[in-house]
Amino acid sequence: MSDDGQTGPSADEPSGPEPPRAPIEIEILTLFPGMFAGPLAESIPGRVQSRGLATVRVHDLRQWGLGRHKTVDDYTYGGGAGMVLRPEPAAAALAVLRRPDSTVILPDPGGEVFGQARALDLSKRSHLVILCPRYEGVDERIRAMIDLELSIGDYVLSGGEIPAMVMVDTILRLLPGAIDAESTAEESFTAGLLEYPQYTRPPEFEGVAVPATLTSGHHEEVRKWRLKEALRRTWRRRPELLEGRQLSREESKLLAEVSHEENVRATDETTRSSETAD
Ligand SMILES: C[S@@+](CC[C@H](N)C(=O)[O-])C[C@H]1O[C@@H](n2cnc3c(N)ncnc32)[C@H](O)[C@@H]1O
Questions:
Q1: Which of 35, 40, 137, 195 would bridge with 188, disulfide CB 3.0–4.6 Å?
Q2: Is the Cβ–Cβ distance between 37 and 68 less than 8 Å?
Q3: CATH of the domain at 218
Q4: Ligand 1 site residues, Cβ closer than 6 angstroms
């Protein structure tokens, strides 16, 4: 499979229900195996594993460390602060763990920004190996052993463990059977939009009532309300997600309504604030 994240069937591939799949296997290479116990054992990641949909194995990278002290890092050539992960322990670990079907991932602030499309792509692969660096990062020669470098955002964490947890959690909940398929289909980003607002009881809280459509019991109206509010939230908060999106006729109509309502609202607000200032 290519690393462009495109996994849809080609024109000559048969479509139809996907055949049952072997559980995805994920290997995590870290100097801090204890960090993974909680996040991967609880809630959805824990349930996914206990149902046999995935196997996640955490390996202590230090077992492949060098010499009596199992050294994994060293000073940076050329001088400068901080230590760098040496290539030999990573190479030795990958020599054991890598298989022909593996995708080896390096969390790295300079990598491709990890998103829902990439998560879905990775959820369809059979074997992931995630190498979690610490220190100042990795010896540059480690990158030649990597299939995919992924960043979880424009900030720097202390190590690759939390990014790996973010990736694994996102991937596991996308596995068929992990959670209600309807939930993942409607979640933010899956349909290319942010999710619509959600409400639960009580019907009124501090003077704010649940929108009447949601309690009407009218399924078609609820569906339309949700689509429109998803478009509104995306338009307000992440307009770039709408650029280049192929809108259905219904979406175009609802978006035109949203844009009109939002313009009226903005004009009203400007009028109100200038009246208050007077
Ligand atoms: C302290 S950081 C090293 C940062 C590196 N010196 C730099 O400036 O790019 C140590 C490790 O944490 C992980 N890491 C930190 N921030 C990350 C991010 N935003 N996304 C993915 N991994 C990250 C990477 O594996 C990185 O090698």
A1: 195
A2: no
A3: 1.10.1270.20
A4: 107-110, 133-134, 136-138, 151-153, 155-160, 163
Q: Strand locations in the chain, DSSP E?
A: 24-30, 54-60, 73-75, 83-85, 102-113, 127-131, 148-151, 204-205, 208-209
Does the global pTM surpass 0.85?
yes
Domain end among 135, 164, 179: 179
* Residue 196 within any structural domain of the chain: no
Whole-number percent of the chain with pLDDT over 70: 93
Atom of ligand 1 nearest to the CA of 158: 1
Q: What is the C-alpha separation between 253 and 247, in angstroms, rounded? A: 9
Q: Which of 132, 157, 167 to mutate to test the pocket of ligand 1 (most atoms within 8 A of CB)?
A: 157
C-beta of residue 67 within 8 angstroms of C-beta of residue 38 = no
pLDDT tens-digit profile of 51-110? 999 999 999 999 999 999 999 999 999 999 999 999 999 999 999 999 999 999 999 999
Distance 84 CA to ligand 1 centre (A): 12
> 170 and 227 in one domain?
no
Residue 8 lies in a domain: no
